[in-house]
C-alpha cells in the first residue's frame, strides 16, 4: 500500500466517511484536513469563512496542506483543495496516491440536503454551485491517480474497492470496473422503480378486470425501442428482445401476484 493515500472530490463525495473507514480497515493513521483546519485555527470552518471570506480560508487551507502532507496514512481533503495551482502542484509533488471520489451532482445534493457545516452550500446560489462543480471536475482529474465512482455504493463497498485497487498494479482496470459497478447499481434501482409502477398498473387492471398479459403491448414496446435505438451500435435488436423479455416477465409475475 502506498505511504500516503489522499482522497479528493467534491463536498459530499464521501472523503471523510470513506477515509476514516479505509484507515481503520488498513490499520493506518487518518487525517482529515478540515479537522486539522479546526484544530489549527481554533475556529469552525463556518466561523472562519464568515470572518475571513473564502480567500482567507483558502490561504490557511494551503498552509495546512503543506504541513500535513508528509503524514503517512490516509488523508481526506476538503472539496476545494484543488482550486489553487499551488495546492495541485504540492499534491502532485508529494508522491501520495491520489484518489478522486466521484459522485454525480444530484447525488451530492441529496447527501448534503440537511448539511449545516459547509458554508459554501449556503453562500452560493444553485447556479454558482453548479459552476463550481463543473470548474472543479477537470482539476480533480488533473491530480488524481485513479477515480472511484461512488453513486449508489455504500462506503463499505468503496473501501473494499480501494483496498483492492491499492494493492493492484493496474489502476485503470479498477477505475473502469468501479464505473461499471456503479452503473449496475443504477440499473437495478431503475428496475426497482419500474416494478413500483408495475404494481400501480396491476391495481388498475384488477379494478377494471383487465387481463395481465397483453401481447400487443409487449410487441409494441420491442418495436418502439428497436426503432429508437437503431443507430446506437451498442444496442442490438437481440439485446432489446432479451431485455424486454426479462422486464416484462418480471412485471407479469408481479402483476399476477397482485391481481390473483
Ligand atoms: N457512499 C455513500 N453513500 C451514501 N451516503 C454517503 C456516502 N458517503 C458519504 N455519505 C454521506 O454523505 C454525507 C457527506 O459525507 P462526507 O464523508 O462528509 O463527504 P465529504 O468529506 O466528501 O464532504 C454524510 O452524511 C455521509 O454520511
Ligand atoms: O468544497 C469546498 O470548497 C469545501 C469543502 C469542505 O470539505 P468537504 O469536501 O469535506 O465537505 C470544507 O473544506 C469547506 O467547507 C470548503
Ligand atoms: Mg469531508
UniProtKB/TrEMBL annotation:
Instruction: Say where the protein is mainly found.
Output: cytoplasm
Name one process (GO BP) from the record.
amino acid biosynthetic process
Entry keyword annotation includes ATP-binding: yes
- Record's keyword annotation contains Membrane: no
Q: Which residues bind ATP?
A: 12-17, 118
| Amino-acid positions noted as binding Mg(2+) in the UniProt annotation, renumbered to this chain | 16
Q: Which residues bind substrate?
A: 34, 58, 79, 136
Instruction: Tell me its EC number(s), please.
Output: 2.7.1.71
Per the entry, which co-factors are needed?
Mg(2+)
Q: Sorted alphabetically, which keywords does the UniProt record give? A: Amino-acid biosynthesis, Aromatic amino acid biosynthesis, ATP-binding, Cytoplasm, Kinase, Magnesium, Metal-binding, Nucleotide-binding, Transferase
| InterPro entries per record | Chorismate_II_sf, CM_dom_sf, CM_II_prokaryot, P-loop_NTPase, Shikimate/glucono_kinase, Shikimate_kinase/TSH1, Shikimate_kinase_CS
Question: What does this protein's record comment on cofactor binding?
Answer: Binds 1 Mg(2+) ion per subunit.
Please state where this protein is localized. Cytoplasm
This molecule's function is given as: Catalyzes the specific phosphorylation of the 3-hydroxyl group of shikimic acid using ATP as a cosubstrate.
Q: Which family does it belong to?
A: Belongs to the shikimate kinase family.
Q: How does it assemble?
A: Monomer.
The name of this protein is: Shikimate kinase
**Which organism does this record belong to?**
Companilactobacillus ginsenosidimutans
Amino acid at each position: 500500500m502506498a505511504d500516503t493515500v489522499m482522497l479528493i472530490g467534491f463536498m459530499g463525495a464521501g472523503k471523510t466517511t470513506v477515509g476514516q473507514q479505509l484507515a481503520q480497515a488498513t490499520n493506518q493513521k487518518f487525517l482529515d484536513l478540515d479537522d486539522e483546519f479546526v484544530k489549527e485555527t481554533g475556529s469552525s470552518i463556518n466561523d472562519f469563512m464568515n470572518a475571513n471570506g473564502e480567500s482567507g480560508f483558502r490561504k490557511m487551507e494551503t498552509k495546512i496542506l503543506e504541513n500535513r502532507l508528509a503524514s503517512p496514512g490516509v488523508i481526506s481533503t476538503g472539496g476545494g483543495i484543488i482550486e489553487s495551482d499551488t495546492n495541485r502542484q504540492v499534491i502532485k509533488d508529494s508522491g501520495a496516491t491520489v484518489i478522486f471520489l466521484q459522485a454525480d451532482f444530484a447525488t451530492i445534493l441529496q447527501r448534503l440536503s440537511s448539511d449545516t457545516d459547509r458554508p459554501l452550500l449556503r453562500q452560493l446560489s444553485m447556479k454558482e454551485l453548479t459552476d463550481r462543480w463543473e470548474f472543479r471536475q477537470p482539476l480533480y482529474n488533473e491530480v488524481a491517480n485513479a477515480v472511484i465512482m461512488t453513486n449508489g455504493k455504500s462506503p463499505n463497498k468503496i473501501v473494499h474497492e480501494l483496498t483492492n485497487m491499492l494493492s493492484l498494479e493496474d489502476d485503470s482496470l479498477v477505475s473502469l470496473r468501479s464505473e461499471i459497478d456503479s452503473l449496475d447499481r443504477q440499473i437495478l434501482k431503475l428496475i426497482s422503480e419500474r416494478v413500483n409502477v408495475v404494481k400501480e398498473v396491476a391495481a388498475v387492471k384488477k379494478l377494471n378486470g383487465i387481463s395481465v398479459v397483453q401481447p400487443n403491448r409487449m410487441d409494441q414496446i420491442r418495436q418502439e425501442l428497436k426503432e429508437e435505438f437503431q443507430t446506437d451500435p451498442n444496442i442490438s435488436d437481440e439485446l432489446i428482445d432479451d431485455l424486454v423479455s426479462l422486464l416484462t416477465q418480471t412485471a407479469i409475475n408481479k402483476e399476477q401476484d397482485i391481481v390473483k
